[in-house]
């Protein structure tokens, strides 16, 4: 088993759907003859928290813990997400997001951590529908996927996930499309790092395209919602 370590992703889910998740977890655990304390320990959870989830008294855990529980209890992650009240459309995107972020690795290491830090923003959640949320960064609203219930989130836009659009290139399904101007262009190995000026904030992009040098006109960039990482903001 390889426990995954992603940002706490999420949104409020009706408690009416939670008992189904709890019953699925409990029945799978009992079928394996595993104790609640043993499963909680291996999943990195507090036993009392898992007990409350099984009883339907707590909302679903974050996506990384659902992944670990699915592996431990030999349950399909898709079944767990559906039991947690996730729609088919969001489910497909969430599963793709996991593959995009991890690629089967035990932990994901950003290509350039310093650029990830520059692309990290504290953003309010302005709209929430299931696992689909809208966050406000500068003067833009971006759609992301998250199970976190906080009103403010740390939002990370991986620079390698931002797609530069030229001319009449087709837009991407479900992508956040922004207009931006290049402020700085530099080469990092075989990649081009572009600092973009968006409405109310700056963002770094890593691209294979080498034809951005000297670019001073407005261009478009697309950010897939599933590529955006979120972490809950905790008040000190």
Q: Would you give an account of this structure?
A:
With 236 residues, this protein is α+β, with helices and mostly antiparallel strands. It folds into 3 domains: 18-84, 434 Repressor (Amino-terminal Domain); 113-156 and 228-232, no CATH class; 159-224, RNA polymerase II/Efflux pump adaptor protein, barrel-sandwich hybrid domain (OB fold (Dihydrolipoamide Acetyltransferase, E2P)), CATH 2.40.50.100. The protein is 30% helix and 28% strand. The protein is built from 7 helices and 10 strands. The chain has helices at residues 18-31, 36-43, 47-55, 63-73, 77-83, 88-102, 113-118, and strands at 120-129, 132-137, 140-145, 152-156, 163-165, 176-188, 191-198, 201-207, 219-223, 229-232. Helix 1 (18-31) packs across helix 3, helix 1 (18-31) runs antiparallel to helix 5 and helix 2 crosses helix 3 (47-55). It starts with 17 loop residues before the first helix and ends with a strand.
């Amino acid at each position: 088993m390889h426990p995954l370590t992603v940002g706490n992703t999420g949104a409020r889910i009706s408690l009416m759907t939670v008992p189904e998740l709890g019953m699925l977890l409990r029945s799978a655990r009992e079928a394996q003859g595993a104790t609640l304390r043993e499963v909680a320990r291996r999943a990195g959870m507090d036993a009392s928290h898992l007990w409350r989830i099984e009883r339907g008294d707590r909302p679903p855990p974050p996506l990384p813990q659902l992944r670990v529980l699915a592996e431990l209890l030999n349950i399909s992650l898709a079944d767990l997400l559906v039991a947690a009240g996730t729609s088919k459309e969001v489910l497909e995107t969430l599963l793709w997001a996991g593959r995009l972020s991890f690629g089967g690795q035990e932990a994901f290491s950003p290509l350039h951590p310093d650029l990830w830090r520059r692309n990290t923003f504290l953003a309010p959640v302005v709209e929430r529908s299931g696992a689909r949320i809208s966050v406000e960064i500068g003067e833009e609203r971006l759609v992301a996927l998250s199970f976190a219930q906080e009103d403010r989130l740390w939002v990370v836009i991986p620079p390698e996930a931002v797609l530069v659009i030229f001319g009449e290139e087709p837009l991407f399904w479900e992508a956040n499309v922004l207009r931006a101007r290049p402020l700085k262009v530099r080469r990092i190995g075989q990649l081009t790092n572009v600092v973009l000026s968006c409405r109310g904030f700056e963002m770094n992009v890593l691209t294979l395209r080498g034809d951005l040098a000297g670019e001073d006109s407005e261009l478009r960039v697309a950010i897939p919602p599933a590529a955006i990482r979120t972490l809950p903001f905790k008040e000190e």
